[in-house]
Amino acid sequence: MTKQCLTWALLIVSVFLCPKTIRSESGSCDLSVIRGNSMYNFSLPSPRPNYPHGALSEDGFYKLALNGTFLWFQLCDQMIFNHDPPRCVGCQGCGGPLHCGMKCNALVAEKIEGYYVCTTIGQHSTTNIAPIDEKDLRKGVVVKMSASNPTNKCSLSVSVFCDPSRTHGLHSIDKHGTCDYVTELWHPSGCANIISIHGKGLGWFGTLIITILCLFGGYLLAGSAYRYFFLGIRGLDVIPNMEFWLHLLEILQSFLGSLVGRWRRRSQDSQNPYRPVRR
C-alpha cells in the first residue's frame, strides 16, 4: 500500500503539477499570452468594426507584385479566386493548372527563362502564430506559413502590426535565403484584447511550491531513467533512494495518524461533560 501511494504521488508531481507554457493556441490564428496580471488575446479571423472577416482579405487573397515577383496569400485560410487567378507553371502543390492557388495559403511566382514558375510557400496545416515582440505584446503578431512538402523548405512570414484605426501596408516583399519571404501588414486585428486577471494567479508562494515540486519530480524521473537504462534495475526499485522515501512516507503517515488521534480524543472529551476525575 505504501509503495502504491508513493507511485501515485510521483505521477501527480511529474505530470500534473509542473507548470506548462503560458501561451495557448486554440486555432491557427488565435493566440493567448499571459504577462503578469494581464492576458493578451489575438484572433485574426474575428470580425472587427468595418472588417467583418478580421484580417482575412475579403477578396479571398492578398496580392503583391514587386520587381517581377508575384505573391498571393491568405491569412488563416486557403485562398479563393473568383477573378484574376495565378497563371504560372508548377502549381501542382496548390491546386494544379485548373485550380491554381486554391489549395494553399501562399504562392509565389518568379520569372525563369521567360516563364513564370509557381512555388507553394504556405499551407493552412503548417500555419503558426507568435508575438512580433515578446517584450511588447501590443505590437501585434507574426503569422508564419510554410510548405508541407519535405523537399520544399519555403515559407512566408506576415507581420500583422496593431493599428486600431485603419489597415495599410503590404508594400514590400523581402526575400531571405532561397525562398523565405517576409512582408508586413497594419490592421486592427493585430491589436490584442487585453483582459486583467489580477488576483487570479498563483502568487509567488504558489509558484515557489510548484517549482520545488517540479524540481523534485525531475530528480526522480532522471534518477529512475538512469537506474533503469544503465543499472538494469526494474520494478519500483528503479526509484532512486527508494528506502529513504518509503521511510519518510511512513514517518509522515505516523505523524498524520498521531494528529488525527489527538483531534479525535479532544473531540470526544468536548462532547462528554462527565469526565472521570483523576486521583
UniProtKB/TrEMBL annotation:
Coiled coil location: none
GO cellular component term of the entry, any: Golgi membrane
Signal sequence region: 1-24
Keyword Glycoprotein: no
Transmembrane segments: 201-222
Entries under Pfam families matching the protein: ATG27 (PF09451)
Localization per Swiss-Prot or TrEMBL: Membrane
Topological type in the membrane: Single-pass membrane protein
Top-level division of the source organism's lineage: Eukaryota
Keywords, sorted A to Z: Membrane, Signal, Transmembrane, Transmembrane helix
Protein's recorded name: Autophagy-related protein 27
Native source organism of the sequence: Acorus gramineus
